[in-house]
Amino acid sequence: MLDLRAVREDPDGVIAGLAVRGEGDWGRLVGRLLELDRERRGLIGEVDKLRARRNASSPGVAALKRQGRTEDAAALIHEMREVGDRIGGHEARLAQVEELLHGLLLEIPNVPDPEVPAGGADANRVLREHGAPPAGAPAEPAPHWDIGERLGILDFPRGAKVAGSGFPVYVGAGATLERALINWLLDLHVRAHGYTEIQPPLLINHEAATGTGHLPKFAEEMYEVPADGFFLVPTAEVPLTNLHAGEILAADELPIRYAAYTPCFRREAGAHGRDTRGLLRLHQFDKVELMRFERPEDSADALEEMTAHAEESLRQLGLRHRVVLLAGGDLGFANARTYDLEVWAPGVGQWLEVSSCSVYGDYQARRAGVRFRREKGASPEFVHTLNGSALGLARTLVALLETWQNAGGGVVVPEPLRRYTGFERIG
Q1: I need a labelling partner for 298 at 20 to 30 A (CA). Which of 89, 137, 148, 191 fits?
Q2: Parallel, antiparallel, or unpaired for β 350-359 and 384-392?
Q3: CA–CA separation, 283 vs 268, rounded Å?
Q4: Are the beta carbons of 239 and 291 closer than 8 angstroms?
Q5: Which residues make Cβ contacts (< 8 Å) with residue 87, sequence separation at least 6?
């Protein structure tokens, strides 16, 4: 959530920053936030004064009684009861105001980084592009669903029979290839890039989802287990960020770098009518996620490094890709800055997002209560959080099948995966 003090000190700057995201009643929201903040601080001040008055009067009652001034003592007691009633009324209103204030803070998105361009998706900036089609690619590449059906490695009808559309079945070499990608990516990021592997829970509670900004904003996008108060994990970002919720870390513990594989579950509410064929848009998909906790002054460099780690995996797989800086209108709710990594899928003729690498500043850390202390006795500060897909497997597999298909109808397995699959080609 936003730093209320920062909003108080520069409301116009916050409104201007939020305006980069596009349309929104930002002035009204910030104005309401400040209105509640003023009322809250006024109530706290009034309660403190009344308590001080009551505390100062307590010895006076006893003194009056000792002096035999019972009527004066009774009057003072009556007055202090009225003060107590006023305190109770103020405290009840204070609780209401704090609940309203907290709820409003949860509804306001993060302020984008100053370098984020204004506008929607058409204002996204392509920063760099790498790769070219491999030798031997067919002149008219087939889409992955045709490749998968021909080779018997993807079964969409049986997945739909078991669970519905958006739940594919990987068969034989297809399942092996998916598993190979997961294992290779984890080994790459753990052994070469220095991340610690985590196997997190696949169910998350309400507090964890709120800590990353998935609640209340994206409740409709998640699969809920209401009987137990859980949600199926939408991304490993949620459990990884909340591993340190409510903690004060020591400075020498930072940076913390985690890598985790999880299946991810998303309802994709509102996605009807968009391109959903094959593996392009799923309700269940595999993903390897990178997560970092950083000192504030190091988070900008950490974003560049994490993005480079995700790029390295695409280079080694021989996939043509590009890095895109997202504009404010295309930015995630909690994100301050995001680089999307898009891979070219020649069979469907599209750039597909396979990774989003984002820095959140202290926005998530404030929600989850993750702080650090620079030195013993120093006041705790909020960490900066970052996360990035490295990679999202479904669309990576799309690009791999469509890029590495050959004129004979088979698919070449990229060299880094061969020791994991045990074979060099499919078909």
Answers
A1: 191
A2: antiparallel
A3: 7
A4: no
A5: 47, 50, 51, 54
For the chain, what percent of residues have pLDDT higher than 90? 85
- Whether 142 contacts 405, CB under 8 Å: yes
pLDDT in tens, 145-201: 999 999 999 999 999 999 999 999 999 999 999 999 999 999 999 999 999 999 999
**Residue 329: DSSP 8-state:** G
What structural domains does the chain harbor? 4-107 (1.10.287.40), 121-426 (3.30.930.10)
Nearest to 347 by CA among 145, 130, 134: 145
Per DSSP, the three-state class of 285 is strand
Which residues are 170's β-sheet partners?
Answer: 154
**Please, are residues 404 and 412 in contact by the beta-carbon 8 Å criterion?**
yes
Angle between helices 393-403 and 173-187 (to 10 degrees): 110
- Residue 227 in tokens: 């009987």
Cα(13)–Cα(24) distance, rounded to whole angstroms? Answer: 15
Q: What's the CA gap between 80 and 88, in Å, rounded?
A: 12
**Overall residue count recorded for the chain in this entry:** 427
Q: Which residues belong to the active site?
A: 266, 281, 353, 356, 395
Measured CA angle at 271 (ends 386, 123), to 5 deg: 55
Nearest residue to 14 (alpha-carbon basis) of 34, 41, 42, 39: 34
Running DSSP on this structure, what letter comes out for residue 405? B
With CA atoms as reference, report the closest residue to 183 among 6, 24, 418, 425. 418
Q: Which residues neighbour 140 within 8 Å (Cβ) at sequence distance 6 or greater?
A: none
Instruction: Give me 328's structure tokens.
Output: 């404010």
Alpha helix segments (H runs only) across 235-362: 237-241, 299-316
